[in-house]
Write a structure and sequence with these properties.
It is a single chain. By secondary structure, the protein is of the alpha/beta class. It has a single domain (17-262), classed as NAD(P)-binding Rossmann-like Domain (Rossmann fold, 3-Layer(aba) Sandwich). It contains eight helices and seven strands. A seven-stranded parallel beta sheet has the order 3-2-1-4-5-6-7, with helices on both faces. Helix 6 links the parallel strand 5 (150-154) and strand 6 (191-197). Helix 2 crosses helix 8, helix 4 packs parallel to helix 5 (119-147) and helix 5 runs parallel beside helix 6 (167-187). It is globular, with a radius of gyration of 19 Å. The termini are far apart.
Length: 268
């Protein structure tokens, strides 16, 4: 007699999957993080965004008008005490954590020649971009293990390709990729994956006082094989998928979202 077929891992709909689920998004008040938080809310879940910028965080709550499904906490991911408050506050408010998106980081990649790079400036990027991922995973994992949750780490296409004078940033993002596959083995069945965004236009995803219409040329868009530069929803769609049970057999992987740029041969 044949063995019984296992039940499908796929939810009937997003309406079944997301209500009651809670996702933490670091750096969630602007840019890619804001896009991911909005996508979670649109799917029916709840979010706690952590960000250094209180003005931006409060603006998000006003714009979303999501009631008790959204919360904001001031967060410095490079400080363990701040991370503990962030995770603890989310648990006190919602009682559970189902997903963690590690998006916070110093976005400026260029730091000048290595021989002129100050040790403190190197450490600031490593401590924030890579150390912040470690600290948030460390403190959220106990709750994620209880909920059989998932982690999505936001790295960068610069983890695999570079411009001059970007060593500290590249090292921090490359470290996230390696940390992701290592933690996926250690933390299972909690799933851990990474996303490498390419050029993502965030001008109109900033807080109201800094928001502006993007100014991109036709050439800016045309250089991408898909015909345009990226926007936060491009990354958010993949992040929400990876957090969901539809990605239940995917862990330790690294997904590049760059419109095909890293696959394009370029010669002078």
């Amino acid at each position: 007699m044949p063995a019984p077929r296992p039940s499908s891992p796929f939810p009937a709909s997003a309406a079944v999957e997301w209500p009651g689920r809670v996702v933490l998004v670091t750096g969630g008040a602007q840019g890619i993080g804001k896009g991911i938080a909005e996508a979670v809310l649109d799917a029916g879940g709840s979010v706690v965004i952590g960000d250094l910028d209180a003005e931006a965080g409060k603006a998000c709550l006003e714009e979303w008008n999501a009631g008790d499904r959204a919360a904001f906490v001031v967060l410095d991911v490079s400080k363990e005490a701040s991370v503990k408050r962030f995770v603890g506050g989310a648990l006190r408010r919602f009682g559970r954590i189902d997903g963690l998106v590690n998006n916070a980081g110093i976005a400026e990649a260029h730091t000048g020649p290595v021989e002129d790079l100050a040790w403190n400036e190197w450490k600031r990027r490593i401590d924030t971009n890579l150390g912040g991922v470690f600290l948030c995973c460390k403190h959220a994992l106990p709750a994620l293990k209880k909920s059989n949750g998932a982690i999505v780490n936001i790295a960068s296409s610069r983890a695999h390709q570079s411009e001059p004078d970007t060593e500290a940033y590249a090292a921090s993002k490359g470290g996230i990729v390696a940390f992701t596959h290592a933690l996926a083995i250690s933390a299972g069945p909690v799933r851990v994956n990474a996303i490498n965004p390419g050029w993502i236009v965030v001008d109109d995803w900033k807080k109201p006082s800094q928001r502006r219409k993007p100014k991109l040329s036709a050439a800016d868009h045309a250089q991408h094989p898909v015909g345009r530069a990226g926007v936060p929803p491009d990354v958010a769609a993949l992040a929400v998928f990876l957090l969901s049970s539809q990605a239940g057999f995917i862990t330790g992987e690294n997904f590049t979202v760059d419109g095909g740029m890293s696959r394009k041969m370029q010669y002078v």
